[in-house]
Specification:
18 helices; mainly alpha; Ribonucleotide Reductase, subunit A
């Protein structure tokens, strides 16, 4: 079998990868996406028929936090930290290649500020996507235990949008539009009429990648306020991904081989899109730097490439737990092997991991 270089596997050419939203789209306050899917009522109200989901629901009820009162918003200095060249978040993939090597100290400080604001802006937009998707799950999932839990997640996601919006607006004083590729992926997940694709796209793929990114940010950020926010969000996100794993395990037991393959292909395409396409395109555009050239530098930067692999650390074990990694002829295993991310398959899946990541009620109130 020929060896495939992961660096050669792309979800599009550089012109496509470096695309950004148009100026007209940036001015639009509302974006409508067509979505038609069945609404599932259930007359079986027996709580606890699915004990794992019931346990998750009970945990969620006791793990709620308030974005206004449980976060210490008195902590300041966020812009100075973002502009600091020694901020570990600013050293990830730092390079002197091309136009980036011509930046002076002030321009590098502005780049640091913009990069952190861009990252958190994409988290915020993704959280709104999760808010919409989870509301769809409440409406479309056929089990009462899943509806109960998904309702708590709707509240979680609203809180996440709120907390990132406040941090961006009041602390960093900079907000970026949604990355066009993230927008396209959210559109695809929202518009699909099948309820399990909403789970798979949002709970497993998008939230799984976010959970890995949050863990990295929590370890690296020198900002105590951002660390507190990230820790709170991570505790929720672990439950959300666990919810997807626990629910889809049951849903996928009776699917045909063709149906499983369709879901494997969806996961692979979503993984490629998430790995390749978040190249800070909007940052380069905002700072007046050549978007295509800077995106290509980031695409091939060795540190950035390794970081993008680490983002699979939550996705691969969860897909293995669902049986999608090895189902059929092992097509998805082969594809993930080509991407060089199979080393994560032995990591703990989030269906069991989430309990260790929860905040205790006293810890929440302590702030």
């Amino acid at each position: 079998m020929a060896v495939v270089d992961p660096a050669e596997i792309r979800s599009g050419d550089i012109e496509e990868l470096s695309r950004t939203v148009s100026e007209a789209e940036k001015r639009e306050a509302i974006r409508e996406v067509e979505s038609a899917f069945p609404t599932a009522f259930t007359w079986d109200y027996e709580k606890g028929a699915r004990p794992a989901l019931d346990k998750l629901y009970e945990k969620a009820k006791h793990s709620q936090w308030d974005a206004q009162t449980d976060i210490d918003w008195s902590v300041g200095g966020q812009i100075d930290l973002a502009r600091d060249p020694n901020n570990p978040l600013n050293t990830l993939g730092a390079t002197d290649e091309g136009p980036l090597g011509k930046l002076n100290a002030e321009e590098r400080a502005r780049l640091g500020h913009a990069s952190i604001a861009w990252t958190l802006s994409q988290f915020m937009h993704g959280e709104q996507g999760a808010l919409v998707c989870t509301a769809k799950i409440v409406q479309s999932v056929p089990w009462i235990d899943a509806k109960y839990y998904a309702a708590t997640q709707v509240m979680d996601e609203a809180r996440h949008v709120e907390v990132y919006s406040k941090y961006l607006r009041e602390k960093l004083e900079w907000e970026f539009p949604i990355n066009v590729h993230l927008r396209d992926l959210l559109d695809a997940v929202v518009s699909d009429p099948r309820w399990d694709f909403t789970y798979l796209g949002m709970q497993i793929m998008i939230e799984g990648l976010a959970l890995a990114a949050f863990g990295f940010q929590y370890q690296m950020s020198p900002d105590p306020l951002l660390k507190q926010i990230t820790r709170y969000v991570m505790s929720d996100e672990a439950r959300h991904v666990g919810f997807g794993v626990l629910s889809l395990q049951e849903a996928y037991r009776d699917l045909t081989g063709a149906e499983i393959r369709e879901r494997q292909e969806f996961c692979y395409e979503a993984a490629l899109r998430m790995r390749d396409r978040f190249l800070s395109q909007e940052v380069w555009e905002e700072l007046g730097l050549p978007v295509r050239e800077c995106s290509e530098i980031m695409l091939h930067n060795p540190v950035q490439m390794e970081f993008r692999k680490v983002l699979f650390s939550k996705i691969v074990p969860n897909l293995k737990k669902l049986g999608l990694l090895d189902a059929g002829d092992g097509w998805l295993r082969q594809k993930f092997g080509e991407l060089g991310v199979l080393q994560f398959e032995t990591f703990e899946d989030t269906g069991t991991e989430y309990e260790r990541m929860q905040l205790e009620e006293g810890e929440i109130r302590a702030g």
